[in-house]
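Handoff note, outgoing to incoming analyst
You'll be picking up this chain. Sequence as last confirmed:
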Amino acid sequence: MRPIAAGRDPQLVQLDASAKPGPPTEFLYNDWYPALRTDTLHEPRTTTLLNIPLLLGRKRDGSLFALRDLCPHRGIPLSAGWFDGETVQCKYHGWRFEPCTGRCEEIPSLTTHDTLEPTKIFANAFPVAERDGYAWVYIPAPGAGRITPDRLAVDGRHPEPQAKDLSIWDASIGDQLPPIPTLPKFSKLFRTAHLSADLPCNVDHGIIGLMDPAHGPFVHRAWWWRSAASIHEKTKRFEPITSPDGQHDGFRMSPHAPSSNSAPYKLLGRPVTTIDFTLPNRRVETIVATNSRGKQRWFSSLTTVTPTTPYTCRIDVVAAWNIGYYIPFVTSLVRFFGARFVAQDQQTMVEQARGLRSNPGLMLIDDADKPAKWYFALKQRRLTGSGEHPLQGPVELHWRS
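Most recent structure output, in case you need it:
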């Protein structure tokens, strides 16, 4: 079929910044979200998570920090000020803050006649820790109060601390923060790569696009992946995932042989694939092949779709593998084709956003859209604190892709 020229552009289509946004969404708080790559934090940098402006950086001793980019005095962004490796100083009146705790260390305007104690004032600091090269930030619900995790600075310095090191003092949150997502690895030697892309749609549309099993032959049509002619009927088994706190429930595409019409999977021989989706925004895929000598070849990826504002989100992918470990160009190939893959999704989301500006009525069908229905049910269950898991047991879904 011939493409419709009126809806295409040779370059990546970008929405006019002044255009009316698509529909907003509700946020899921009290959880960890990836903020920035830690190798970019040579100097403090800003980003936005769940509509909260953040300032992230490292202290001189390597400790990560994440501050709300706002001085509690008069509201000027702290990013407009100075950082000396130990404290962040506001540009407006020179207030200085220890960035890991947010504690105010100095108010230059105070005199011997003042009784105000600066150290009783706090800028809004968030728990932050490093995993797989990302700074993950814990975003509490509005009004939850200040969170002071035990040994927060230690956790920021060391890339892979145990979750038990994240005990907190604020009893209203619980005895421990939720575990921080970590990319599965199956050997000591492996390579990694990462990709990110901004999407001009709310996180719900980003997530259901991430889990959509039927778009591959159309959005990702390529000689090295899939063609329209490769479409055939598939049957996959799904099972529920339940978490102890009920906040990270999800569903699993049970272990299965990868799609026969996806060329890269053939490089692994006869692998077994497992795909998990869990709230609030995480998809973990593992592909493992074991030969007759017990040696494993594997690939794993952690993909997150993180809300930046009620109308926009960001997709982050971090992957690891041991295939071709000693071949130098394999990592470059993975990054090249991975970037092409993510750019195809980004292009589609940009084009979809043009249609969503009018907030049209949409539909979800069985069986291909069933995972999207499960996601919305799980999210509503977490928001309201009531209802049952949408999967009461294993089920089979059928679709063509």
